[in-house]
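Thread: Newbie trying to understand structure tokens

Hi all, I'm a second-year student working on a class project, and my supervisor (Dr. K.) asked me to get a predicted structure for one chain before our next meeting. I've only ever worked with sequences, so writing a 3D structure as a token string is new to me. If someone could post the tokens and maybe explain what I'm looking at, I'd be very grateful. Here's the chain:
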Amino acid sequence: MDNSMIYILFICIIVPILLMLPLLTGRSRLLMGYLLIGVFCCLFAAGVNGYIRHFVGGNLYYVTTNLTPVAEEIIKALPILYYAFLFNADKSKLIPLAFAVGVGFAVLENMIILTQNIATVSVFWAVIRGFASGLMHGICTSFVGYGISFVKTRKKLFYSGTFALLTLAVTYHSVFNTLVQSETYKYLGFVLPLSTYVPFIVYIIATGKMKVLSKGDS
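---
Reply by user tm_fold:
Sure, no problem. This is what the structure looks like when written as tokens:
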């Protein structure tokens, strides 16, 4: 795929949302801002992944199951770590922001893959990408957001805890990529994110741990 097409998709997605930001306030602006950060993270990850494929070679399966999950999860985690340490480490704020980063990342990634496979895509493909790959990115980043709220308050666990959270996100991402590229178990990969998302949302709602971001948050 021509790199210029990635930038074209990036501009088409990000410019209209940027123009909308001045009309938003408080919670809405913060969430939308982090969604845009997720789109930018995908653009940056696309460049990093390109270098990885260049140096490793043409074994796409090895790259997507072992290397790109590491790069992508580290890149997605950085904005969440930034917010946690400079503003607020409350899990009720970090989880939605982390999920927004993952969703923004998935939006651009899905558009890139769409243009690469335009002749073979279908409505079924779109549903799978939305509920599988798109949801996977949000879940992985949410792992980090949820966990960092604990790590932030326990200085002795900061380095080991942050490493463990990134390892969890990378492992989940890698398992998903491995499953969906398998002829035998690809449908398990398709349902893995949804089977993780639903119990997590039920837990959040049942325990009342998700509070609304206040208008004063930034």
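A couple of things are worth pointing out once you decode it. Helices lie at 3-20, 26-56, 60-86, 91-116, 123-151, 158-180, 186-207. Confidence is low (pLDDT under 50) at residues 212-216. Feel free to ask follow-ups in this thread.
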